[in-house]
């Protein structure tokens, strides 16, 4: 029967630093983590090249759903009208609530529209922008200024950026080179400086001063 002391001595020699067993353990400490990393990468990358579908099962009670699809500060939207002239719509903040509808809600909005005789500036407090129709619906007061002494003040209006037309939902006052006007509602062609008033239309012509 082998001596237990001799067996113990042989085990100590086999596990001693610098022995073959010690060198094997040292190699495995390096190789095993590398193999595990390669295997993990293979498991992740394989579905991308297999051509099959990858499915995920999520617990709806644990997944956080965003209430707003998009929310940005200092948003700018640019485009071109029917004549290819550029327009820009700027807002202090913009929120798109759902991808199902192309509506962006705007705060502190302003727009600049290119006209044949110069740009027109539009300023409003809040409203929403329909990206498909390129129309801005303004809630509350709205002011339009353009070169040549034209100015409109109205409220609850719809501005069509493509056709450069404005339809008011409330009373309007304005200034043109010939004088001032007012009415209950208005349809305006901003490009051609044509204003159509509906209800209690008033026009005050101011004679031009001669030198």
UniProtKB/TrEMBL annotation:
<dbReference type="InterPro" id="IPR010664">
    <property type="entry name" value="LipoPS_assembly_LptC-rel"/>
</dbReference>
<feature type="transmembrane region" description="Helical">
    <location>
        <begin position="30"/>
        <end position="49"/>
    </location>
</feature>
<dbReference type="Pfam" id="PF06835">
    <property type="entry name" value="LptC"/>
</dbReference>
<keyword id="KW-0812">Transmembrane</keyword>
<keyword id="KW-1133">Transmembrane helix</keyword>
<protein>
    <submittedName>
        <fullName>LPS export ABC transporter periplasmic protein LptC</fullName>
    </submittedName>
</protein>
<dbReference type="InterPro" id="IPR026265">
    <property type="entry name" value="LptC"/>
</dbReference>
<keyword id="KW-0472">Membrane</keyword>
